Structures are given as C-alpha cells and as structure tokens.
Amino acid sequence: MFLDVDGTLLEIAATPDAVVVPSGLTDVLQRLYHALGGALALVSGRGLAGLDMLFDPLRLPAAGQHGAELRRRGDVPVQSIGRDPRLDGFVRQLRAIASERPGLLVEDKGLSVAVHYRLAPQYGEEVQAFATALLAECGGDIELLPLRMGIEFKPRATSKRTAVEWFLRAAPFHGRVPIFVGDDRTDEDGFAAALGHSGHAVRVGLDGDSLASMRLATPQDVRDWLARCAAGLA
C-alpha cells in the first residue's frame, strides 16, 4: 500500500506546517504496516525529515519530495539525488517576489522548491507565469509540477511513479498487488505505476478526472478505511 499524505491522510491546511495528525492515525499506520509485513509506504511531496516529524515516533518506508528521497525501511539510510545548484537561484528570485506579495510562501525542501499561494490566490496567475519563465531558462532536467494552490520545481527524473516502481523491485513490496491512494495531480503518476503492475488506484475527492476508478470522499474516509483494513488484517 502506498499513501500520499497531504489531502489524503491529512486534511489540507493553510500552510504545510499547519497540518494536524489526528489522534489514533499513527497507531493505525503502525498496525497496518505490521499486518502487511512492512509493505506500506508514504509517498509524498514532503521531505522525509518532515514526514518523520509528523508521525513521530513512527518511521515508515517512504518516498519524499516526489521520489527524490527513498527509504525502504524506517531504520535504513535515505537514498537521494543531489540538489540541483540552479535551485539556489530560483529560491532567491522566488523569495524576492514573495517579499512584495503578502501571503506567498516559498518552501525550499532541499531537492525541490515549492511556491504556495493558498493564502494569496490573487497572485496565482502571476506566480505561474513567473515560474514558467524561470523554467524556460534552465533546460530540460527540471520540471514544473502543478500543486493544489501552488507550483513546484522538481527533478524531471523522479516522480511518484518512479518511487512506486523502486519499492516494487525489492522485498517486502516485490510480487505484491500495489494500491496507491492519493488526492491530486501529483498522485496520478503513482496511480499509473500501481495500475501498470495490476494494482489499484484510489482517488480522494469526488471531482476531477483521474486514472483511479475508485474514490473516497475525504481524508477522514481514508482514515476510517485504513482502520478497517488494519482490523481486518490483524
């Protein structure tokens, strides 16, 4: 099982730091992890350090920053690509723009950089145009990923699809039927990977086109479903 975090396990918040992990969720994830023999991973746009802080003391297999960070178990070192030095220039320019537009948030994750305009949606089109112009200057190995109320610069070579395929190449994921649960455009790559391995895709939210044929309405519905899965597999 592969689980996105924001918008899937947790309700979307005004800023990434404002999310709340509901009581009991960490216990459900831990029970499900053991019931699946370790074949449960978080696949998120967040960095792994941030994921570990959210679910502390639980350390799960995880892919962070859209597959740029990878860890098959919680007690092994993280595998990651190097930071593209051009991101430093992007961060400086984006923060200069944000300093004059209250509500914009620039999030430097290390291997990717996101700009959130949830608190200032009036700047959305301007941010999109500026980011597109920056991208045009840098060549083809960085791509612009649309987020829910934001955009993100990330390495083109990594995605939630490459992350799922990496997990499926080795135990305890290899040879299992994958299920990917996610809520937005960034998760469609994960859906494609699961479906490509004769698995299943579950979209959170009832609107929007998707590769997923199954739907759950809200993160609360996801948490309730996972709790039932954990109880049923115990």
Structure description:
The chain has 234 residues and is α/β, with parallel strands linked by helices. The chain has 2 domains: 2-81 and 158-233, Rossmann fold; 86-155, Alpha-Beta Plaits, CATH 3.30.70. It is 34% helix and 19% strand. It has 7 helices and 12 strands. It has helices at residues 25-35, 48-55, 86-99, 124-136, 160-168, 188-196, 219-233; strands spanning 2-3, 41-43, 62-64, 69-71, 79-80, 105-108, 113-116, 142-147, 150-155, 179-182, 200-204, 214-216. Strands 5-4-3-2-1-10-11-12 form an 8-stranded mixed beta sheet. Strands 6-7-9-8 form a 4-stranded antiparallel beta sheet, covered by helices on one side. Strand 8 (142-147) and strand 9 form a beta hairpin. Helix 1 (25-35) packs across helix 7 (219-233). It is globular.
Distance between the termini: 16 Å
Overall mean pLDDT stands at: 95
Helix/strand structural class: alpha/beta
CATH domain class of the largest domain: Alpha Beta
Largest sheet: 8 strands, mixed
Shape: globular
Helix content: 25-40%
Radius of gyration: 17 Å
Give a short summary of the structure:
This protein is of the alpha/beta class and 234 residues long. Helix content is 34%, strand content 19%.
Fold topology:
Elements lengths: L1 E2 L21 H11 L5 E3 L4 H8 L6 E3 L4 E3 L7 E2 L5 H14 L5 E4 L4 E4 L7 H13 L5 E6 L2 E6 L4 H9 L10 E4 L5 H9 L3 E5 L9 E3 L2 H15 L1
Parallel strand pairs: 1-2, 1-10, 2-3, 10-11, 11-12
Antiparallel strand pairs: 3-4, 4-5, 6-7, 7-9, 8-9
